[in-house]
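re: ur question from yesterday

yeah so i grabbed the chain u mentioned. its 391 aa long if i counted rite. heres the sequnce exactly as i have it in my notes:
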Amino acid sequence: MLRVLTLSSLYPSDASPAFGGFVERQTLALASRADVEVKVVAPFAVPPFGAGRWLAAYRPLLDLPACEMRGGIEVYRPRFPTIPGVGGRINPGSMGRTLAPLLTQIRRDFAFDVIDAEFFYPDGPAAVALGRRFGVPVSIKARGSDIHFWSRQKGCREQIVRAGRAADGMLAVSGALRGDMIALGLPGERIRVHHTGVDQSLFTPMPRGEAKAALGIDGPLVVSIGNLIPLKGHHILVEAMKALPDVHLLIAGRGPEAEALERQIDDAGLAGRVRLLGALPHADLPALLAAADVMALPSASEGLANVWVEALACGTPVVITDVGGARDVVTRPEAGRTVGRTAEAFAAGIAEMLAAKPDPALVRSTVTDFTWEKNSAALFDHLAALVAAHG
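ran it thru and got these structure tokens back, copy pasting raw so excuse formatting
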């Protein structure tokens, strides 16, 4: 029996149901194996001395239970102190100090064999310190922004490199991200590419006309899914719609750019064809993606976006920027196009895919290897090998 302690600073809760949903789905798949036991520690940062009570952004987190059962897995939610604005570089140390007593308590009844950190920063440096304390091996997974963003922040790059060199093993969601990690100075021989999974019984092609009708759409449809933040580039898609007069665009997600996007839509006279749907439950995404003729996402950076794979599994081609693992999924013309991060390039790429109308079955066939079963089997093999090597 392999006993895994999953450490993830992004994990869904009642306060943020979609926050780190891909981590939860991976964890549930791993825990479903008969030869694995899993407990989750999902720490979150709050200002010290009770200041979080006065900050609206923290109130939902502070009301979460310290421990709960979620999906049949025990999830601990300890809070660690941070200083807003400068907390990035101190968070790993603060997290590690806070978690040490909790892991001591957990270990009395659950002698975990390995710590599986699900984000490189701040989780990775904290996990390495805890692994040394408890004498167990540590794996750290890189997902994208935890490398691309945090390695550019003052005082963080050094911690990332030290953690990666000290970790027993590392995972990267794409081959491109593995290359970025090596470029930072991390040992490539200890980095394994670990692709995401998708529930292909849920994300599957549906009759497109019926799916569109359920959304009140008649005509070509483009869908985009992602947080409404500059990194995702939804403003580029809105601008692209000016060159696609008969096309509808639905954007699912929430974030600080929502008001600016609404103004952009109104100013461009696109309110009849472009809509913001807000955040949607993950269970609603299969029908939305299956209705679309194209899924588009102009991200400035990614590791390997789950929504890329989910769209393709629904038989919907993608038009995306050539970032992260884009070339791991756009492997054939039927899968879509990678284009420049401009409105003109996205308009051209979308128009090309709308004209091509690839067979949904051929589109889906490009991601048949992206399953949670294969994902969990690879994760089990990786973690079990680290435990065996550790002795």
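noticed a couple things. Residues 208-365 form a domain with the Rossmann fold fold (CATH 3.40.50.2000). also The longest strand covers residues 2-7.
anyway ttyl
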